Protein backbone atom coordinates (compact mmCIF):
# COMPACT_ATOMS: atom_id res chain seq x y z
CA UNK A 1 0.00 0.00 0.00
CA UNK A 2 1.42 3.39 -0.93
CA UNK A 3 1.90 6.26 1.50
CA UNK A 4 -0.85 8.27 -0.21
CA UNK A 5 -3.24 5.33 0.11
CA UNK A 6 -2.47 4.96 3.81
CA UNK A 7 -3.04 8.68 4.41
CA UNK A 8 -6.32 8.65 2.50
CA UNK A 9 -7.50 5.57 4.39
CA UNK A 10 -6.59 7.14 7.73
CA UNK A 11 -8.49 10.33 6.88
CA UNK A 12 -11.49 8.35 5.74
CA UNK A 13 -11.42 6.28 8.93
CA UNK A 14 -11.37 9.48 10.96
CA UNK A 15 -14.38 10.85 9.12
CA UNK A 16 -16.17 7.56 9.57
CA UNK A 17 -15.55 7.68 13.32
CA UNK A 18 -16.92 11.25 13.51
CA UNK A 19 -20.17 10.23 11.83
CA UNK A 20 -20.56 6.86 13.52
CA UNK A 21 -22.21 8.32 16.60
CA UNK A 22 -22.43 6.72 20.06
CA UNK A 23 -21.60 3.21 18.84
CA UNK A 24 -18.09 4.29 17.84
CA UNK A 25 -17.54 5.90 21.23
CA UNK A 26 -17.93 2.51 22.89
CA UNK A 27 -14.68 1.32 21.26
CA UNK A 28 -11.31 2.65 22.31
CA UNK A 29 -10.19 2.99 18.70
CA UNK A 30 -13.52 3.38 16.90
CA UNK A 31 -14.32 1.40 13.73
CA UNK A 32 -11.34 -0.65 12.62
CA UNK A 33 -10.10 -2.45 9.53
CA UNK A 34 -12.61 -5.27 10.08
CA UNK A 35 -15.59 -2.90 10.30
CA UNK A 36 -18.02 -3.60 7.43
CA UNK A 37 -18.78 0.07 6.79
CA UNK A 38 -15.08 0.88 6.70
CA UNK A 39 -14.43 -1.95 4.24
CA UNK A 40 -17.26 -0.75 2.00
CA UNK A 41 -15.81 2.75 2.08
CA UNK A 42 -12.40 1.46 1.00
CA UNK A 43 -13.85 -0.47 -1.92
CA UNK A 44 -15.82 2.52 -3.15
CA UNK A 45 -13.06 5.09 -2.62
CA UNK A 46 -10.11 3.53 -4.43
CA UNK A 47 -9.52 2.11 -7.89
CA UNK A 48 -6.68 0.44 -9.76
CA UNK A 49 -4.21 2.90 -11.27
CA UNK A 50 -1.24 1.55 -13.19
CA UNK A 51 0.66 -0.96 -11.08
CA UNK A 52 -1.08 0.25 -7.90
CA UNK A 53 -3.91 -2.24 -7.43
CA UNK A 54 -6.74 -2.19 -4.90
CA UNK A 55 -5.83 -5.78 -4.06
CA UNK A 56 -3.25 -4.24 -1.73
CA UNK A 57 -6.10 -3.19 0.55
CA UNK A 58 -6.77 -6.86 1.37
CA UNK A 59 -4.91 -7.64 4.57
CA UNK A 60 -3.27 -10.93 5.44
CA UNK A 61 -3.47 -12.30 8.99
CA UNK A 62 -0.39 -10.39 10.14
CA UNK A 63 -1.62 -7.03 8.84
CA UNK A 64 -5.12 -7.55 10.21
CA UNK A 65 -3.77 -8.44 13.66
CA UNK A 66 -1.51 -5.39 13.78
CA UNK A 67 -4.26 -3.04 12.62
CA UNK A 68 -5.49 -3.09 16.21
CA UNK A 69 -2.86 -0.93 17.96
CA UNK A 70 -3.06 -2.70 21.32
CA UNK A 71 -2.09 -6.03 19.75
CA UNK A 72 1.49 -4.82 19.26
CA UNK A 73 2.16 -4.61 23.02
CA UNK A 74 -0.77 -6.10 24.97
CA UNK A 75 0.48 -9.03 27.12
CA UNK A 76 -2.80 -10.81 26.41
CA UNK A 77 -1.85 -10.94 22.72
CA UNK A 78 1.69 -12.26 23.34
CA UNK A 79 0.96 -15.83 22.23
CA UNK A 80 -0.67 -14.61 19.04
CA UNK A 81 2.32 -12.38 18.31
CA UNK A 82 4.63 -15.37 18.78
CA UNK A 83 2.51 -17.45 16.40
CA UNK A 84 2.57 -14.69 13.79
CA UNK A 85 6.34 -14.32 14.09
CA UNK A 86 6.79 -18.08 13.66
CA UNK A 87 4.54 -18.09 10.59
CA UNK A 88 6.50 -15.21 9.05
CA UNK A 89 9.83 -16.86 9.85
CA UNK A 90 8.66 -19.90 7.89
CA UNK A 91 8.39 -17.72 4.76
CA UNK A 92 12.06 -16.70 4.79
CA UNK A 93 14.08 -18.02 1.85
CA UNK A 94 17.79 -18.17 2.51
CA UNK A 95 20.46 -17.41 -0.14
CA UNK A 96 20.00 -19.97 -2.89
CA UNK A 97 23.76 -20.26 -3.51
CA UNK A 98 24.88 -19.99 0.11
CA UNK A 99 26.46 -16.57 -0.48
CA UNK A 100 25.28 -13.81 1.83
CA UNK A 101 26.96 -10.66 0.58
CA UNK A 102 26.79 -8.84 -2.73
CA UNK A 103 28.21 -5.45 -3.71
CA UNK A 104 27.85 -2.69 -1.12
CA UNK A 105 27.96 -0.02 -3.85
CA UNK A 106 24.84 -1.52 -5.39
CA UNK A 107 23.38 -1.86 -1.91
CA UNK A 108 23.79 1.86 -1.31
CA UNK A 109 21.88 2.63 -4.51
CA UNK A 110 19.05 0.34 -3.41
CA UNK A 111 18.96 1.77 0.12
CA UNK A 112 18.77 5.34 -1.18
CA UNK A 113 16.03 4.60 -3.73
CA UNK A 114 12.37 4.92 -2.80
CA UNK A 115 11.04 4.14 -6.27
CA UNK A 116 8.58 1.36 -6.86
CA UNK A 117 4.99 0.22 -6.29
CA UNK A 118 3.31 3.60 -6.89
CA UNK A 119 0.93 4.36 -9.76
CA UNK A 120 3.60 6.53 -11.43
CA UNK A 121 6.11 3.64 -11.55
CA UNK A 122 6.27 1.07 -14.34
CA UNK A 123 6.05 -2.67 -13.86
CA UNK A 124 9.50 -3.20 -15.39
CA UNK A 125 11.12 -0.60 -13.13
CA UNK A 126 13.44 -1.97 -10.44
CA UNK A 127 12.17 -1.24 -6.92
CA UNK A 128 14.33 0.47 -4.34
CA UNK A 129 14.63 -0.53 -0.71
CA UNK A 130 13.50 2.87 0.63
CA UNK A 131 15.83 2.33 3.60
CA UNK A 132 16.78 6.02 3.88
CA UNK A 133 13.18 6.91 4.72
CA UNK A 134 13.42 5.26 8.15
CA UNK A 135 17.14 4.88 8.93
CA UNK A 136 20.36 6.85 9.07
CA UNK A 137 22.72 4.95 6.78
CA UNK A 138 26.02 6.85 6.91
CA UNK A 139 27.60 9.38 9.27
CA UNK A 140 27.64 12.02 6.52
CA UNK A 141 23.86 12.14 6.16
CA UNK A 142 22.31 15.31 7.54
CA UNK A 143 18.73 14.34 6.70
CA UNK A 144 17.41 10.85 7.32
CA UNK A 145 14.47 8.95 8.74
CA UNK A 146 14.18 8.18 12.43
CA UNK A 147 11.37 5.63 12.55
CA UNK A 148 13.99 2.89 12.57
CA UNK A 149 17.36 2.81 14.38
CA UNK A 150 20.51 4.25 12.86
CA UNK A 151 22.42 1.75 10.72
CA UNK A 152 25.72 3.61 11.01
CA UNK A 153 28.48 1.23 12.17
CA UNK A 154 26.06 -1.71 11.85
CA UNK A 155 28.85 -4.08 10.81
CA UNK A 156 31.41 -2.63 13.22
CA UNK A 157 29.20 -3.34 16.19
CA UNK A 158 28.62 -6.99 15.28
CA UNK A 159 30.62 -10.09 14.51
CA UNK A 160 30.23 -11.21 10.93
CA UNK A 161 29.38 -14.74 12.01
CA UNK A 162 26.54 -16.96 10.83
CA UNK A 163 24.20 -15.77 13.57
CA UNK A 164 24.64 -12.13 12.51
CA UNK A 165 24.27 -12.99 8.82
CA UNK A 166 21.01 -14.87 9.48
CA UNK A 167 19.62 -12.22 11.81
CA UNK A 168 20.34 -9.46 9.29
CA UNK A 169 18.92 -11.43 6.37
CA UNK A 170 15.74 -12.18 8.30
CA UNK A 171 15.21 -8.50 9.12
CA UNK A 172 15.45 -7.52 5.47
CA UNK A 173 13.52 -10.47 4.08
CA UNK A 174 10.65 -10.48 6.56
CA UNK A 175 10.96 -8.22 9.59
CA UNK A 176 7.71 -9.49 11.06
CA UNK A 177 9.39 -12.80 11.78
CA UNK A 178 11.25 -10.94 14.55
CA UNK A 179 8.62 -8.39 15.54
CA UNK A 180 5.06 -9.25 14.53
CA UNK A 181 4.01 -5.62 14.21
CA UNK A 182 7.27 -4.16 12.94
CA UNK A 183 6.90 -1.04 10.78
CA UNK A 184 9.59 -2.34 8.44
CA UNK A 185 8.33 -3.62 5.06
CA UNK A 186 8.61 -7.34 4.40
CA UNK A 187 10.97 -6.72 1.49
CA UNK A 188 11.65 -10.27 0.37
CA UNK A 189 8.40 -11.89 1.44
CA UNK A 190 6.25 -9.33 -0.37
CA UNK A 191 8.42 -9.40 -3.48
CA UNK A 192 9.46 -5.76 -3.16
CA UNK A 193 13.14 -6.63 -3.56
CA UNK A 194 14.73 -9.84 -4.85
CA UNK A 195 17.48 -12.10 -3.52
CA UNK A 196 20.27 -10.27 -5.35
CA UNK A 197 19.12 -6.93 -3.97
CA UNK A 198 19.00 -8.36 -0.46
CA UNK A 199 22.60 -9.54 -0.85
CA UNK A 200 23.64 -6.05 -1.92
CA UNK A 201 21.93 -4.57 1.14
CA UNK A 202 23.63 -7.18 3.33
CA UNK A 203 26.99 -6.01 1.94
CA UNK A 204 26.08 -2.39 2.60
CA UNK A 205 25.49 -3.26 6.25
CA UNK A 206 28.33 -5.71 6.85
CA UNK A 207 31.18 -5.06 4.41
CA UNK A 208 34.07 -3.27 6.21
CA UNK A 209 34.56 -1.09 3.12
CA UNK A 210 30.96 0.10 3.12
CA UNK A 211 30.33 3.74 4.15
CA UNK A 212 28.00 2.35 6.80
CA UNK A 213 31.06 1.08 8.67
CA UNK A 214 33.32 4.11 8.19
TrEMBL record:
Q: Where is the signal peptide?
A: 1-25
- Which keywords, in A-to-Z order, does the entry hold? Heme, Iron, Metal-binding, Signal
- Please report the stretch or stretches of sequence annotated as the Cytochrome c domain: 102-209
InterPro entries per record: Cyt_c-like_dom, Cyt_c-like_dom_sf, Thiosulf_SoxX, Thiosulf_SoxX_II
Question: Is Nucleotide-binding a UniProt keyword of this protein?
Answer: no
Q: Which NCBIfam families match?
A: thiosulf_SoxX
What is the official name of this protein in its record? Sulfur oxidation c-type cytochrome SoxX
Q: Which organism is it from?
A: Azospirillum oleiclasticum
Amino acid sequence: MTKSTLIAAALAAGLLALHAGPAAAQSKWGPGADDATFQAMLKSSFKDNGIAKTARLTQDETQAFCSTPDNATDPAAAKKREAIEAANLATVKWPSDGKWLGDWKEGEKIAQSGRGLTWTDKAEQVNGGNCYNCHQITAEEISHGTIGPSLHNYGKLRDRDEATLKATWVRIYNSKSVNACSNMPRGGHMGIIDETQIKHLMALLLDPQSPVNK
